[in-house]
Design a protein that fits this description.
This protein is mainly beta. The chain has no helices and eleven strands.
Length: 120
């Protein structure tokens, strides 16, 4: 059974940093894509980052480019989203998701979500 277990959300002041973690359990293939998404109540879910293990390079939305960075601890099959220079508009529930190696368009598995709140 595939599971994505998230951790690391919380409350931070504007300009601060947080690191989210996403542990991938039970997925036996070597190549896949990991996407990070966020959602604010009443708004559509936004894809903010996607990285595929085939190429290793990540893509970021304009809203987070230059502030957020995705990385991986291969030994622990754990992905991270480092979020720096956080702004109040980054407040949302953040999700990691696992998709086919071709990209993050239609993820097959989702983490449980973690709340990030940025105070002004």
């Amino acid at each position: 059974q595939v599971q994505l277990v998230e951790s690391g959300g919380g409350l931070v002041q504007s300009g601060g940093s947080l690191r989210l973690s996403c542990e991938v359990l039970g997925f036996t293939y070597d190549h896949y894509s990991i996407g990070w998404f966020r959602q604010v109540p009443g708004k559509e879910r936004e894809e903010i980052s996607c990285v595929t293990t085939v190429y290793g390079s990540a893509k970021y939305s304009d809203s987070v480019k230059g502030r957020f960075t995705t990385s991986m601890d291969a030994a622990k099959n754990r992905w991270f989203l480092q979020m720096d220079d956080l702004k109040p508009e980054d407040t949302a529930v953040y999700y990691c998701a696992l998709a086919l190696p071709s990209g993050c368009y239609y993820p097959n598995y989702w983490g449980q979500g973690t709340q990030v709140t940025v105070s002004s």
